[in-house]
Write a structure and sequence with these properties.
This protein is α+β, with helices and mostly antiparallel strands. It has two domains: 3-56, no CATH class; 64-305, no CATH class. 22% of the residues lie in helices and 33% in strands. It has helices spanning 3-27, 33-56, 115-122, 245-254; strands at residues 64-69, 72-79, 83-91, 97-101, 110-111, 124-129, 133-134, 137-138, 144-145, 151-154, 158-160, 163-165, 173-177, 182-183, 192-196, 199-202, 205-206, 217-222, 226-232, 259-263, 271-273, 280-281, 286-287, 290-291, 300-305. It has an eight-stranded antiparallel beta sheet with strand order 1-2-3-19-18-20-16-17. A five-stranded antiparallel beta sheet has the order 4-25-6-21-22, covered by helices on one side. The longest helix is centred in the N-terminal third of the chain and has 25 residues, at 3-27. The termini are far apart.
Length: 308
């Protein structure tokens, strides 16, 4: 049993028990500030308890496949574990779809931003987190860095509209993008670049590795014609445990991928869309051990529709 499993299993019932206790105690008081304080505390504990119980006893959602917008398809599948996997496939050859990525900052560091906020700000139909970054810490739901707007530095080669920035280190797999092509090699047409850490698939074959940790994962991949954004939910017992890098590589290779690069995972793994009636996060991130809480990150990449 993980620490998160224990927190959700005990925290939800304890919060509801506290809420009932405060309610009964308040009802037995004749009045005054103590009664009001107890009633408020009890009411505040109710959503915490409902959230904890709901998250602890979730089950994986059913598989799904649908078109988000012309040229952009979304698929949700459940692998053994369980592991809930979210995949967006983008037809890069379409003249109405172009990449959009985190812009360089004129100040000190790149301001951290949630993937959903990035997608909304830059008009991306879909977006995913990319580079590992620093500084970072996550001690509690209230003590973490970065928050939205805090300066950060993405690792590896980061390029937006031909301008490179970020810490040119810790990069073992850079994805170069033009308006109609994705490559692991820099091309003259490349105007965007995002960097990850581990190559998961190369030449259609999974890359062997010794990493054993089950965790949330993000990856950018390519099948020869379509760019893939892939996110695996994790650290959420009963709903999605996550995947090892090897298992994700084997899954993607079996689905016909030519190459795939691991991006920042853990609580950073986020996939968002602005299509449909409301912008929304497609997966359930796990930030500060809180399921479905989005983390501000240093770098993102998305696909934007133009000429419409």
């Amino acid at each position: 049993m993980t620490s998160l499993d224990l927190i959700l299993m005990l925290g939800g019932p304890l919060a509801l028990t506290f809420a009932v206790g405060m309610g009964l105690w308040a009802a037995s008081r004749p009045g005054g500030w103590l009664r009001s304080t107890a009633a408020i505390a009890g009411l505040a504990a109710i959503p915490v308890g409902v959230y904890g119980i709901g998250m602890r006893y979730r089950t994986p959602p059913p598989p799904q496949r649908r078109v988000l917008s012309p040229g952009i398809e979304y698929q949700r599948l459940v692998a053994d574990g369980p592991a809930v996997v979210h995949i967006v496939r983008i037809e890069l050859g379409r003249p109405d779809l172009i990449p959009v990525a985190t812009p360089p900052s004129a100040g000190k560091g790149v301001p951290a931003q949630r993937v959903l906020d990035f997608a909304v700000e830059h008009g991306a139909d879909v977006a995913i987190n990319t580079a590992f970054f620093h500084p970072f810490h996550s001690s509690s739901p209230f003590d973490y860095y970065p928050r939205t707007g805090d300066p950060t530095e993405p690792f590896g080669i980061t390029m937006t509209d031909g301008v490179e920035f970020g810490a040119n280190r810790f990069h073992r797999g850079t994805v170069y993008l033009s308006e109609d092509e994705a490559s692991l090699e820099r091309t003259p047409e490349a105007r965007w670049a995002v960097t990850g850490r581990t190559t998961l698939v190369r030449d259609g074959q999974p890359v062997p590795g010794n990493e054993k940790t089950m965790a949330p994962r993000s990856a950018v991949a390519y099948d020869g014609t379509r760019l893939w954004f892939v996110v695996v939910d994790g650290r959420q017992p009963g709903y999605s445990e996550g995947m090892t890098l090897g298992s994700l590589g084997r899954l993607l290779a079996g689905m016909g991928i030519e190459w795939a690069i691991e991006m920042d995972g853990g609580g950073s793994s986020t996939l968002a869309t602005t299509t449909g009636p409301n912008p929304r996060t497609l997966n359930c991130p796990i930030h500060t051990r809180m399921p479905c809480r989005d983390r501000p990150v240093a770098a993102q990449v998305g696909i934007k529709r133009v000429g419409s």
